[in-house]
Amino acid sequence: MTDLTPEPNTAPQLTASEVDARVGDRIRRRRILMGLTQDQLGEALGISYQQIQKYETGANRVSVGRLYLIAQRLEVNPGWFFDGNLSDASRADIDELGSSRLLMDFVRNFSRIEDDRLKTALVALVRAMAENEEAFDEDSVKLSMTEDSSALHP
């Protein structure tokens, strides 16, 4: 006979409201990555952008049927909304960039590029620019620390 007792769950227990907020956050992230506005997603689902806002903030619960339709429009499996594999660092990065209209514009236009070589070159360019900016920030901190210590020891 098959044992139907659940395995012990080592994941932290979440309240229903916390799950609603996490699912809403995942809807927002995927919508932005797909280059859609709240209005566009709402129109595709036959609901208002205000309702999308309420789903994304966790203010309103998403029914299973609606979540299925959202998943179809956002081209993911419904289970994706419950997948918590994002690290805290990438979550913070996405949160910082996720609300940016500039990022939405970039993603939307990047996805329209068909030439894979051009896409690869653009990714390399952006990566090099980001690394250069990080190096610049580190050099600025070192210079600032040097100036501070020289002021202490004239």
Question: What's the layout of helices and strands?
Answer:
Elements: H1 16-33, H2 38-45, H3 49-57, H4 64-73, H5 88-98, H6 101-112, H7 116-152
Helix pairs in contact: 1-3, 2-3
Describe this entry's structure for a reader:
By secondary structure, the protein is mainly alpha-helical. 68% of the residues lie in helices and 0% in strands. The protein is built from seven helices and no strands. It has helices spanning 16-33, 38-45, 49-57, 64-73, 88-98, 101-112, 116-152. The chain is globular and about 45 Å long. The N and C termini lie far apart (83 Å).
Summary, kept brief:
This protein is mainly alpha-helical and 154 residues long.
Overview features:
154 residues, mainly alpha
In helices, the fraction of residues equals 55-70%
Content of β-strand:
under 5%
C-alpha Rg, in Å?
22 Å
Q: What is the approximate shape? A: globular
What is the number of E strands? 0
Helix-strand topology string? HHHHHHH
N→C terminal distance: 83 Å
Summed up, the helix count is: 7
Mean pLDDT: 78
**Sheet with the most strands, sense and barrel status:** none
Enumerate the spans where pLDDT stays under 50 for 5 or more consecutive residues: 86-90
| Structural class by sheet pairing and helices | mainly alpha
